[in-house]
Design goal:
alpha/beta, Rossmann fold
Amino acid sequence: MATVSEVIAAHLEAAGTRHIFGVPGGDSLALMEACRGRGIDFVLTNHETSAGFMADAYSLLSQTPGVYLTTLGPGATNGVSAAAQALLERSPVLVITAQIAREHQGAMTHQMVDTEALYRPVTKWSATLTPENADVVMRRALRTLYAGRPGPVHLSLAGDVADAEAASFDGVSPDPLEGTTPARRELDAAKDSLGKSRRPVILAGLGAYHSECVEPLRDFAARARIPVLYTPKVKGVIPEDSPWAVGSVGLGMAADAVMREMLAAADLVIAVGFDQVELVTGWRNALDPGCPLIWVDYAPCDDAIYHVDVSLVGDMGPTLAALSEGECTSAWTEGELLERKGAIRETLTGRGVPEARFGISPHRVTQIARAILPKTSVVASDVGAQKLMNTQLWESYHPGTYLLTNGFSSMGYGLPAAVAAAIVGDSAEPVVCFAGDGGFAMTMHEMETAVRLDLPVIAVVFDDRSLSLIATKQRRRGFPENGVSLVGKDYEALARGFGAAGYHVESEEAFEAALKRALAEKRPAIIGCVVDPREYDVQL
């Protein structure tokens, strides 16, 4: 008979998971060994939050459950932020935390935390594994990850339970989620609205990643000649050199004015996988309540921020294919949309943006990197001022090539996500992380992970010695800069300390040379770019 750990490993193997991330403890060794026996690699990280961020990115890129493992006590509490991250990023991530043996629970307090209760507010389901329920709980856990809106599940595993024999386990059988198709009445109503519209707009969101609808969405937009606005999580679902891709919405950037003008001009909004979790508060009233809205998603619009006129809940690919069969006489022209895309670039890089007084302008770091990197390159953006600029300026051409946290927006996400991307990509091509110096400092220890695993992860650090996003907000309120300054770092020496390549650059030419060299060497690298942050005052 299989042990509880072997039951868990069997289910993970059947689900397609090939890596789990975490920091081990004595109580998690049995599970690690069972996973190793199933060909599932354990990736040691330097912190449990990083492990969770890696599992988040892994779930998106591999299209399998992301898994991270923690020891008991402080290991379990360190993993909570990553669970909240997965909840608000709609990521199917399984969190397994160790627990003290059952015989000591209630009698010993050393490292004892009620992890089931701890994780309940930040997961879709939190449960405790026992020898009697291991098979059933694993089946439910894996279904819950993907049911409705995807999200995290937490399981608590006591040390003695991990080694115990499972009460029953007859192997893993397929347990697929059933798909649905919207009713003909709703599809007909949507086609009728589409046929009456002259200025329809598609608003795409992160739900497009959790449904096989990328090609149907591209075909629908091109066939019906409908412009697409998209939240940052789905950059690349529509290639950004397509005439129908306009730009990213929802972050409160200066260029959002162009997006708002388009939405104001729309006579129909088609929300495809759109999820309000990505919107900042300023976007809550961005849509005209009198403008009809068609909701295309695998989950209903439970948030109720926007009024939905026609709800098409079900398999998004077939739904979009059915909509493509409808009539649409779009008045949008490619020239008009190209002009709007130019207005976005002008806002971020044009005459109103001040030149750098020292170092490099942040937007030039982005533009130079985009000119050098292949269209298929994966980049991960950390949270901060550079992220807000990057999401609207960086061009993505394929889904899954631009990684960021937007619903939770946690600093420190970028580097762990890049490490996970390199693992999924099997180290074939370098992965680039864009990070401010503040965000990078939070998880820079994961450069050791990249070096240990020989992963071609290149961290491009926007070095302005400040939390620039907060500093900008202080200036706008007339406050002096306070509590936002950072000590400068020697990124060359820091990289050497990790065993990575290191570069310090203060000019565009030096950055271009450093990035090309790092890409050619295909080894872990840190490029510290001295940037002048004053352009953020007009961009953010």
